[in-house]
Amino acid sequence: MDTLIQGISYWIEVLRMLTLSGVLSRLAMILSLSSTLDAARLKPSYFTRVRKMAFKNIVFFVLRGFNTSTQTALNRFFEQISGQVEVMTQQAMSKARSHFDHSPLELLFRDIVEQRYCGEHEINLWHGYQILAVDGSDIALPKMPGLLEAFGGIGRNADSPAAKISLLYDMLNDFIVDAAIDRAGASERDFALGHMEKLRNICPNAEKLLIFDRGYPSAALIQKLQAQGLHFLMRVKSKWNCDVDETTAADSLIKLGETTIRVVKFQLSSGETETLITDLFELAVEEFPALYFKRWPIETKYDVVKNKFALENFTGYSENVILQDFWAVMYLANLATVAKDEANAEAQKERAGKNNKYTYVPNLNQVIASLKDHLVKACFADSEEERIRRVEIILTEIKKTVVPIRPNRSVKRPSNPRKAKYHHNRKISS
User: Fold this and answer.
1) Beta strand spans in 268-319 (E)
2) Rounded to whole angstroms, how far apart are CA atoms 106 and 428?
3) End-to-end Cα spacing for the chain
4) How many CA atoms lie within 13 A of 400 on its CB side?
5) Digits of tens for pLDDT over the chain (430 positions)?
6) b/e map 265-285, b = 16+ CB within 10 Å
7) What top-level class would CATH report for the domain 122-300?
């Protein structure tokens, strides 16, 4: 009876989940639509003749990613889809990518977000709140004059091409809800305002709490958050506001213009005093330290997109390719979460009843490797049955390589980490 109940519980959980097979079906469908190509091509004459590589295949190639030379990656791609190699040259691929913009890849990202939050799938909440973190980061670009002109630069002479990116991240569901890329030095608050607009149709029935680091607080931003019915928790630095600095109580209220905000102060293990401001008035003061530190996963998500998916290892030197690669990585980061969650549900079912000391979860490196190895064949499947079979191969590989979660572990950061891993955008030899 217990086994039967566990089996029923598992399938109920699966039915509430966004599945990898469903997402890949949508991926293939979107890239087959004429409207997708029409919106993307930069001239009406592009992609009107039969070529060695159809438009949707080029997008699949971009999504697959590679850490070898472009030609080697092309040969492997064609071998996977047709059993042939050296069908297309690197120069032909570069030309083909210059014929369409980044919109198909951004469309795929927007679509997977819409699927996740369409109301059909279970969403993890905290006391009824959807908890989202906003954070920005600089990314190094290949050192090309055109990119310096398009995005600006950083460094002593502002001559190292770079861009600013920003994520709106659902920490309890490990999902990038919105992403943006702009010039180096772009305002993080402006990014935040853009993210807020995208929240209008995301989980409309759930209260939303946005957590910000200390670069964001401003009276204007707080006003706009409240106008849209969004709650906030912000870390503030000293000298941001005199009234905030002067209060010594652990929990107090102050006026910020016409708005009343709550100020919470607590001591860190280092002995420093942390200061938070919020509009959550009913929450017990003891809960705020743990609540604020729930934003930490956005830091690890940046590690995922920059290091696991090698965002800064761009596959070309034009502004157009930078944007294509950016949106491809944003989509793949969410696709990996879908695969990880589905495989985890299967793994937990198989481990039910085992008295394990730790909770086991899929290894993210294996998730990414399995997607890279099998994504193309799953997308090029001749039938839905074949796609499902390919997806099962991916999920089986993932669930075989679970790793334990060991609480309260920490890794010391290097004292002087190198910031530009792919400064010259050189590929790793195969």
Assistant:
1) 273-278
2) 27
3) 52
4) 7
5) 344 334 434 334 444 689 999 999 999 999 999 999 999 999 999 998 877 788 998 999 999 877 778 888 888 888 877 766 667 888 988 999 999 999 999 999 999 999 999 888 899 999 999 999 999 999 999 999 999 999 999 988 889 999 999 999 999 999 999 999 999 999 999 999 999 999 987 887 889 999 999 999 999 999 999 999 999 999 999 999 999 999 999 999 999 988 999 999 999 888 889 999 999 999 999 999 999 999 999 999 999 999 999 999 999 999 999 999 999 999 999 999 999 999 998 888 876 666 666 677 888 999 999 998 888 888 888 888 999 999 999 999 998 887 777 665 555 555 555 555 655 444 433 3
6) beeeeeeeebbbbbbbeebee
7) alpha beta
pTM exceeds 0.85 = yes
Domain ranges in the chain?
2-103+314-405, 122-300
The DSSP symbol for 138 reads: E
SS3 state of residue 333: helix
